[in-house]
Amino acid sequence: MIITLHAVDWLALLGHFLSLSLLAVGGAITTAPDMHRYLVTQQHWLSDAQFNSSIALAQAAPGPNVLFIALFGWNVGINAGGGLAAGYHAWPYAALGVMCAMIGILVPSTTLTFAAARWGHQNRELRPVRAFKQGMAPIVIALLIATGWILSANQGTFATSWPLWLLTIVTAVLVWRTRIHMLWLLAAGGVLGWFGWI
Amino acid sequence: MPESRPSHPDNSAAPGRPRPHSVSDLFWSFTWLALQGFGGVVAIVQREMVEKKQWLTREEFVEDWAVAQILPGPNVVNLSLMIGDRYFGIRGALMALAGMLGIPLLLVLTLAAILSNTADIPGIQGALRGMGAVAAGLFTATGIRLIGALKSNVMGKLACTLLAFATFVAVALLRVPLVWVLLVIGGLAFAWAYRQLGRLRAPQGAA
After folding, report:
1. Do A144 and B147 make contact, defined as CB atoms within 8 angstroms?
2. Percentages of chain A per state (helix, strand, coil), in multiples of 5
3. Residue A183's closest CA among B48, B164, B157, B85?
4. Which of A119, A140, A159 is the last residue of a domain?
5. What ipTM goes with this model?
6. Does residue A2 belong to any structural domain of this protein?
7. Are A85 and A138 within one domain?
8. Which residues of B touch A19 (CB under 8 A)?
9. Model confidence, pTM
């Protein structure tokens, strides 16, 4: 896929990420549907395959999931720099794409978080601030468990993908009950999957 | 006297507490955290910050995580920013952020450059599937381990259980958008906690 981006297009790319940043309540992944609408459907800057593989790679690689946004920028840049065939000649464009994407998605939200968290910390004795933190505690704990459930459900039903569910359950019990290092578990999951045993 | 108890370590007021000794300690701690986080960093943050390094108690972690979650932006990025700011101000916030994102970003771009031709090898697909299943277990276990932090919650056991159960059903089973869950269930929880904090004040003043 090869596209042409002018200066105004790069600004539009930056602007789109800036505008989504403050809407990303619950993590950057919640803005993925709107990014698909803009980057793939409306502007044709990114192919469907590139969109999906960016999310899959960022999920699989270590680090915060928000890095899928960097991969969107990277792939848009590669497309603008002459596609995969252009080899490393496209990399400066890819780097520009990464910068537009990451600056756009992070600057507004981190600025707000910095100010709000500081205010909350300085006023931590105020009754509304304490009520907020106490009230949210059971909700965020349930959200973590729900995330585990959703990730499990995405890999298929128990009847069809029971080995994956079993691995999830064994992992959960081990992490809950023992102090085993999580990297061993991830490595074990990777090896089991590599050999096609699950 | 819960009214006067700080909900967080005040850096000067808690001399004996473990804490990062420098901004570069923050940077490398968060880099190491991020590099262990496949499919979700929060499980690793909980284990490293609360159980190993003990920079935060379980209760403080849950409170910070609530703030990081409700504000826009990537949750673990928000959390690293808040922890960094608490110890070293804006310098700490930026270093924690750089640690969380810098080296992982270079790594994922390198992978993208390498994998652009080889993404369809079945072994890699299988390995990703296996690590995804493990990641699901990590999230669940992290949630379960944090349940203990609710013991000291002002809302009481029954209210905490009901709120957690309602949240799980809404998000995991009914797939209600997060914004509505936070507004409705979060609003109810806030109102109940606010009321309980008020009731707490009166009898303890008398006793």
Report:
1. no
2. 75, 0, 20
3. B48
4. A119
5. 0.85
6. no
7. no
8. none
9. 0.83
